[in-house]
Every structure is written in C-alpha cells, then in structure tokens.
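YM 10:42: Acyl carrier protein sequence, as discussed on the call
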Amino acid sequence: MTVTENEILERIRAIFKENFAIEPERVTPEAHLFEELDLDSIDAVDLAIKLQEMTGRRIKPEEFKSVRTVADVVTAVESLLVEQE
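YM 10:58: structure's back
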C-alpha cells in the first residue's frame, strides 16, 4: 500500500489539530515546527509518538533531530512507511 505525500500531510494536519490545537491551514510543508507552529521539545516528543502510532514503526531519536519543517516530518514518515514494505 503506497501512501502519497498528500495523504501523509493530511494525517499530519489532523495530528496537529487534535494534539496541539493548530489549525490545518497553518500546517504547510514550508512551516517551521518550532518558529512558526510554536512547538517545543515536549511537543516534538509527543509528535514523534503520534507518528510512531500512525506508522507502527519506532522513530529513532537521531533521525528526528534533523526535523525542522512539516516537509521534514512528511519525509520522515515516508521513510518509515518504505521500511515497512
């Protein structure tokens, strides 16, 4: 089952709305997680946990450290999903 970048982005938008009360229209690929969406380090951990639940795969902390934008999150999820196939 191949998931498109758009489908991943929609799921990420839902996670941001449900968990961080961030409106989906603010969650664009270019949006910076910490500067524009006001996430902090605890939110980043929560996000990593939600992505693990979404993909069924464990996210290595060192992989998630380089994530800065929503596009980076999409790429991280894509790589987790590819590992599953």
